Hints:
- The complex is a heterodimer of chains A (295) and B (406).
- By secondary structure, chain A is mostly helical.
- Chain A has a single domain, classed as ABC transporter involved in vitamin B12 uptake, BtuC, CATH 1.10.3470.
- Chain A is 72% helix and 4% strand.
- Chain A has helices spanning 3-34, 41-57, 63-86, 94-116, 142-164, 166-176, 178-183, 188-213, 223-236, 241-261, 269-283, and strands spanning 121-122, 132-135, 138-141, 216-217.
- In chain A, the strands form two sheets. In chain A, strands 1-4 form a two-stranded antiparallel sheet. Chain A has a two-stranded antiparallel sheet with strand order 2-3.
- The longest helix of chain A has 32 residues, at 3-34.
- Chain A is globular, with a radius of gyration of 19 Å.
- Chain B has 406 residues and is α/β, with parallel strands linked by helices.
- The longest helix of chain B has 20 residues, at 332-351.
- Chain B starts with a helix and ends with a strand.
- The chains are: A mainly alpha (295), B alpha/beta (406).
- At the A-B interface, α1, α4, β1, α9 and α10 of A face α1, α2, β9, α7 and α8 of B.
Amino acid sequence: MDISFFVQQVINGIALGSLYGLIAIGYTLVYGILRLINFAHGDVMMVGCYVAFYGIFLFSFPWWASFLIAILLTAVVGVMIDIGAYRPVRNAPRISALITAIGVSFLLENLGLVVFGGRPKAFVRPDFFSGVRDIAGVRILDLNIWTLLITLILLGIILLVIYRTKAGRAMRCIAFDMETTRLMGVDINRIIAVTFAIGSAAAAAGGIMWAMRYPQINPLMGILPGLKAFVAAVLGGIGNVTGAMLGGLLIGIIEIVMVAFQPDLAGYRDAMAFAILILILLFRPTGLMGTKLPD
Amino acid sequence: MKSIDTEKVYMIAVSRYFQVYHSVQEDDMRPKGFPIIFLSVFILFSIGGPAFSQAKKEPVRIGVFLPMTGGVASYGQMEWAGIQVARDMKPTVLGRTVELFLVDEKSDRIEAANAVDRLISKNRVHAIIGTATSSNTMAGSAIAEKAKIPIVSPTATDPRVTQNRKYTFRVCFIDPFQGEVAARYAYQSLKARRAALLIDRAQDYCVDLAKFFEDSFKKQGGKIVQKTYCQSGDQDFTAQLSAIMSSRPDILYLPNYYTEDALICKQAVELGLKVPIMSADGAQAPELIKIGGKAVEGFMLTGHFEKEGATTKLARRFIRNYESKYKTDASGFDALGADAYFVLMNAIERAGSTDGQKIRAALASTRKFEGVSGVINIGENGNAIKSMVILQVRDGKFRYVATVNP
């Protein structure tokens, strides 16, 4: 086996995996605090992509301004979803919140179809990210390096927020025991809103990186990355932010390696991700990193 | 307690995935009951013509099912645009107005079957136009066949679409022809000897077309050096492309839809793959160029129609009408949508009735019909026999290269 071929495939895998990881971080954050699997996460990501798209093409903002606006607006959308959909079922059984999340997901998808139209739109990658490096026959995109960097930076910021700020302490308390936290005088709704804002902002960042890598956005684009990120989050130990990142990388590498070395199985790459999910649930339900947040 | 909860959550997660993406395939696609829960079907009524003058006569109801959303939404939207222009050009048949009923099949097989069911049982249509892709046409026509409602597909090119079907027709050529022309062109004009393929395994069209290309290319004396697969909706092709690169082909054949093709081309350029890329009619959508950008320059394909290669009178009239209505160029899918409409109207006229069996007989005997995309003969099995164009992307536009006759 050609060594540069192998290295290239691993790099392809890391590139894909860091995208999964970036999306998985937001997923796992919300789960870790609220014990809610936010199925709308992928669709929130889609909203982020469209905001960035329209920022550039309709209002011709520079790309960085457009991305910043997209991230902020998506954070607002996340908070609105929390207030409108999840807050009313906060004290209902967990399954109700889950079904609500699926409802929100469908709502966003179909709203997207009506508002943005069903035809895919071309997301143009800014020149800043367009470079390609060729190192001994192995091609690396600048974008891939940036994605990995942004994922790590975001991971750092989120860990900092959770473990070094007052809001973060409140978040950890909510994860521990919501009722007691409320009794301690913490404004639970506000803290949860902050959690959703951070999670959605991370989704938007992930979505924008995704759209630059696969420059074709449509209203249903969030479903599959969302589910893969979910698998990544479970693999890493759901609720664990670092684990989500690792899980994402692993899923990406496994997928690429499978397609590269078993081309006949290429049609089953999605099935592979879900097979991993099932195996993890059977043999190590807490995921690779266990769960640091107490149950 | 907690673990039971989590299990439930995961089960729902997984089942949701399968709901959205992998609907189970069955021979009989008729849905049990009518699962409207997840459907949001848009029915658009055509703008009524001078309805008052024919107020007494019952309109001719034509059902249209097309992918207006989902993975191949562009096909549906283009064909629908073409059909509407065609209807404006010919709003009446047998002295009755033509009423169009559009149902979105969402680029999904099950939805396609539902759409046809709905058109027949709810809108009581006399004939059906649809749909753009082969797999979905097969799903829909299974239901139309039982109801004995003729169905005309604009662009389903897989030979199996009309096999063992009595009421199913199409106005496009079929894939053996397409695969052969592409292989011949690659071997003789591009002097390619080593071909690689990347095939979308989820589509009958792509799998069969790949096979026709392969057989024909081998017969010419060429060699298939790499065959890799993907699935509709995939976005990352780096693994397959890296494998293709290491096999050093001198042509890459992509028998897929524009969504995948555009991303494949983009990633091919990023990985440094520098070989000519050829594809088929599925790639002829403006999105290919919008999304592919510079990466699809030089991209070649076998297609149904291109403005520059238009020959018939109807084509010139259609292009004029289309461009004054939409202010953009008419593409192959617009033309084929219009052709499905014109051929169907012509058949109804000759049948002198809206009875399904009579329309069927008239459709089957369509000869030398001067359509938009060329002269159409309906041959055996309800397949159209017609010419093909070879196109190339140059300066961000599909340009006409040559016409190939069957």
